[in-house]
UniProtKB/TrEMBL annotation:
<keyword id="KW-1133">Transmembrane helix</keyword>
<feature type="compositionally biased region" description="Acidic residues">
    <location>
        <begin position="233"/>
        <end position="245"/>
    </location>
</feature>
<keyword id="KW-0812">Transmembrane</keyword>
<keyword id="KW-0472">Membrane</keyword>
<protein>
    <submittedName>
        <fullName>Uncharacterized protein</fullName>
    </submittedName>
</protein>
<feature type="transmembrane region" description="Helical">
    <location>
        <begin position="6"/>
        <end position="25"/>
    </location>
</feature>
<feature type="region of interest" description="Disordered">
    <location>
        <begin position="227"/>
        <end position="248"/>
    </location>
</feature>
Amino acid sequence: MTAITITVLLLVIGGFIAFAIVLQMKEQARLEKLRKIARLNNQLRQIRRYLDDLPPQYQPKDMRLWLFSRMIAVYDEILVVQPDGTLNRRRNNLAEEMTTFQTDKKKRRTKPINDEVLVMELKRLFESFKLFIAQSKKEKTLDGDTAFRYTNMMEFYSHKIHVDFHAYLARHAFLSGNMTTAIEMYKEAIAQIEPIQEFPEAQPLIEQYNETISEIESDMALQEAEENIMASEDGEDEEELDDEWDKFIDNSTFQKKERF
């Protein structure tokens, strides 16, 4: 085998190896691109869930705006990797939704916490959101002070949701006329505040529920007094009727004796 043949064979083999390496690198790049798109799409779904499923009372305006901005940023990352008209429209619609929310002065309606299953679901969502906050801080998409504030907020809400649930039960009992149960539920709501009593928002809740309990107890005492008065008046009326009946019987007997 001549040197030229050997050289050609080496070049062919080298070319084949280089071609195989290039193909492998392209495949790795393609897989990495797909993995990145999948990861970003998961982030989109995750953030959308926070936006949609966190009740308004547990989602301050600045936090919601941050979630909007994060979701838009994720869309932008996807569009760099994979330009797509549909994704671009979704991104623009989201930006419009964010602008509308930012300029809207109307307060969002509070969602009633009226079910134990809902309580457990939201507690899991709070825990998930705390992890998302930590990850965002690590990725430097959220500054440390804000991350600390949001984390404390989620810790507070994780307990407050039990407070809100018992407060809902108390209001429902009150509207149903079951005052004793209403008082018990308000007292339980106060007891649920104990783990978060160091938070500034806790004391006004305790005062509010104590005032409500006092008002209900005052109403119950007044109602009981009115019932006692009515019962007393009814008793007096019955005594007067008995006296009149006795007089009637006596008069009738006397008349009979007179005729006899």
